[in-house]
């Protein structure tokens, strides 16, 4: 989908306001280097530079216009000292960077952790402070610590297959799996391992706290070229071919629920409850999820899902009889 | 002249202006606004101003006389526009660059952020090694930007809020003091006008938009976000539960609740004391483990489990 013209314009203007200070700080930077750095085609970059000939300060005489020279293939921008420093960070730029840094600082034995902490200290102050200098943005990632993170990192670094003892909420069982690790992934305060599960032959996400043991094997593991971590958000991902459960969820639970789980559809009912469709992997998993929601959930269907809920409830009820 | 050229000229002129420029100055002096049609100028200028503000360019409107009877002037204060010099060392820039490439959902924004911070730095291209971890920090949450700007500008905000628990949703007016991220969630800490006290709000429970209110305020001396968020997250955490893990699951509390009081239960099971925020949270935790986890204490939690399970069976 092509973004609307105003969004394209804003994106281009943002780039130009960054391009000028960069070219001023690096006189003689190559046109090709610059287009790689800003991830635009050479022709687009040349258009951006050509545009600057017409820009400058009121008067717009030879001493007022921005002076751009790139005929030789090397870029020189002069007479634009007011654009020598970039525009301050936007809120999302600043917070994305700060929060990403904080997540990284929570990794055990992270290389460069000390430099990162120094950087976060400086960035935190730049994000804004109280009159006394205390930061107004405070990010602590606080992902669950785990003894296994080290082994998982080692396997990733050396591209080796892992042998895991893993407790799966989908089966309610502990089992041994061989996994080619693709990435560690942190979301909602937890660490996950994403990789190829050799038992199912499919891409799977493993909660690190549910790994009982992790052993780095001698077998080589590879990451597919088309693996894109950006296809993940939150803690769950729907897989093709999964069955759908339907149920209604209370207004107070609906918002976080819909943020947390990739619901297929959600509509508001007359009394404010939300009617939800959610894909699920196994009856065991959907039953545990729906039971965990207590009386925030009602009208569970279809029949095989409500049977699974009743079945699991009956088993657990024996403990409380 | 194309619109983008006119916008660049407007930014340059307002950044370099020694005094605020009136609309009339802008029309006469800035290239791209020449037109005899007053209405056409007005429309073009208003649209430019609004689009630039949306991009985060700090165009300020100043009253030029005390009585407000003269046309206002416009200026971009240098201190509000330029990124302050952070004096980052090369290794600090390199560390931030790695962090930026690991952020999911807002990778492009994080990348632009690093580029701004590393303008003058020598470009040591990052090695080809693929990063072995990623983080979803929920910075793409749409309310985070407006709330952050409000904290920085000390601008009161209004929003509708749906608290956890049984309380009804309500309209809140808040003076924001801090924005805090814990375990994947964002919280706003600030002065709640209705409660007349400092309160913490989970951003995910704000329904609808955040509106800016009138006026300004100061963050009280000695304010620290820390205490407010901890007590909010735990909502006291004053319930101590005793939970029995099946022998086959003994490893889970041993690895993940190390340091908790624990004792041997019957038939090889393992009893662990754990602080919980509420009976509901405890019940939800236990349900996920099916028949392999049993709540022993408190008795209210057992009653609640029984009630919910009996309903689910029938």
Describe the structure.
The complex is a heterodimer of chains A (321) and B (314). With 321 residues, chain A is an alpha+beta fold. Chain A is 35% helix and 26% strand. Chain A is built from 9 helices and 13 strands. Chain A has a 5-stranded antiparallel sheet with strand order 8-7-6-5-9, with helices on one face. A 4-stranded antiparallel sheet of chain A has the order 11-12-10-13. Chain A has a 3-stranded antiparallel sheet with strand order 1-3-2. In chain A, strand 5 (160-168) and strand 6 (173-187) form a beta hairpin. In chain A, helix 2 (31-37) packs across helix 3 and helix 4 packs antiparallel against helix 5 (113-126). The radius of gyration of chain A is 27 Å and the shape is elongated. With 314 residues, chain B is α+β, with helices and mostly antiparallel strands. Chain B folds into 4 domains: 3-81, Arc Repressor Mutant, subunit A, CATH 1.10.10; 85-140, no CATH class; 144-231, SH3 type barrels; 239-313, Alpha-Beta Plaits (2-Layer Sandwich), CATH 3.30.70. Chain B is 37% helix and 23% strand. In chain B, helix 5 runs antiparallel to helix 6 and helix 10 (279-288) crosses helix 11. Residues 125-130 of chain B have low confidence and may be disordered. Classes of the chains: A alpha+beta (321), B alpha+beta (314). Chains A and B meet through helix 1, helix 4, helix 5, strand 4 and helix 6 of A and helix 1, helix 5, helix 6, strand 4 and helix 7 of B.
């Amino acid at each position: 989908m092509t973004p609307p013209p105003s969004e394209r314009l804003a994106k281009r203007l943002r780039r130009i306001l960054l391009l000028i200070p960069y070219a001023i700080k690096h006189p003689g930077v190559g046109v090709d280097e610059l287009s790689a750095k800003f991830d635009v085609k050479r022709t687009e970059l040349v258009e951006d530079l050509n545009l600057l000939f017409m820009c400058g300060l009121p008067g717009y005489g030879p001493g007022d216009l921005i002076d751009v020279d790139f005929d030789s293939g090397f870029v020189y921008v002069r007479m634009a000292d007011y654009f020598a420093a970039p525009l301050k960070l936007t809120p999302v730029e600043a917070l994305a960077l700060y929060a990403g840094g904080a997540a990284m600082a929570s990794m055990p034995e992270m290389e460069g952790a000390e430099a990162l902490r120094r950087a976060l200290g400086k960035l935190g102050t730049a994000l804004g402070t109280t009159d006394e200098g205390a930061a107004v943005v405070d990010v602590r990632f606080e992902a669950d610590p785990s003894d296994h993170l080290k082994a998982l990192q080692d396997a990733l670094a050396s591209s080796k297959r892992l042998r895991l003892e893993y407790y799966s909420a989908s089966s309610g069982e502990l089992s041994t799996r061989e996994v080619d690790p693709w990435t560690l992934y942190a979301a909602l305060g937890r660490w996950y391992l994403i990789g190829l599960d050799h038992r199912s032959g499919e891409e799977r996400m493993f909660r690190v706290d549910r790994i009982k043991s992790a052993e780095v094997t001698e077998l080589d593991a590879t990451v597919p070229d088309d693996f894109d971590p950006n296809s993940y958000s939150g803690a769950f991902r729907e897989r093709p071919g999964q069955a759908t459960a339907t149920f209604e969820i209370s207004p107070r639970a609906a918002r976080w629920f819909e943020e947390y789980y990739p619901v297929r559809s959600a509509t508001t009912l007359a009394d404010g409850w939300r009617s939800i469709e959610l894909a699920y992997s196994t009856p065991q998993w959907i039953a545990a999820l729906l039971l965990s929601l207590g009386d925030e959930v009602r009208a569970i269907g279809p029949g095989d899902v409500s049977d699974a809920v009743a079945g699991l409830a009956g088993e657990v009820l024996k403990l409380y009889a | 002249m194309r619109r983008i050229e006119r916008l660049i000229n407007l930014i340059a002129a307002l950044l370099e202006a020694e005094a605020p420029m009136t609309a009339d100055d802008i029309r006469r002096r800035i290239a791209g606004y020449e037109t005899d049609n007053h209405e056409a100028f007005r429309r073009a200028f208003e649209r430019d101003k609004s689009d630039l503000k949306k991009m985060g360019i700090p165009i300020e409107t100043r009253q030029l006389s005390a009585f407000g009877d003269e046309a206002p002037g416009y200026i971009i204060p240098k201190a509000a526009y330029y990124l302050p010099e952070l004096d980052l060392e090369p290794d600090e820039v390199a560390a931030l660059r790695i962090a930026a490439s690991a952020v999911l959902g807002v990778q492009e924004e994080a990348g632009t952020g690093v580029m701004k911070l590393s303008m003058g730095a020598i470009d040591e291209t990052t090695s080809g090694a693929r990063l072995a971890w990623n983080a979803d920090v929920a910075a793409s949450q749409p309310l985070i930007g407006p709330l952050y700007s409000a904290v920085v500008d000390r601008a009161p905000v209004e929003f509708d809020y749906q608290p956890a628990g049984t309380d009804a949703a309500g309209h809140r007016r808040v003076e924001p003091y801090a924005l805090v991220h814990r375990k994947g969630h964002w919280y706003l800490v600030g002065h709640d006008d209705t409660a007349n006290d400092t309160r913490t709000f989970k951003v995910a429970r704000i329904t609808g938009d955040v509106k800016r209110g009138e006026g300004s305020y100061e963050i009280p001396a000695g304010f620290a976000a820390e205490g407010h968020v901890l007590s909010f997250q735990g909502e006291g955490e004053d319930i101590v539960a005793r939970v029995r893990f099946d022998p086959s699951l003994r490893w889970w509390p041993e690895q993940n609740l190390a340091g908790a009081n624990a004792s041997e239960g019957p038939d090889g099971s393992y009893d662990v004391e754990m602080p919980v925020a509420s009976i509901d949270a405890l019940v939800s935790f236990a349900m996920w483990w099916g028949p392999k986890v049993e709540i022993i204490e408190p008795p209210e939690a057992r009653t609640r489990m029984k009630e919910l399970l009996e309903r689910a069976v029938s």
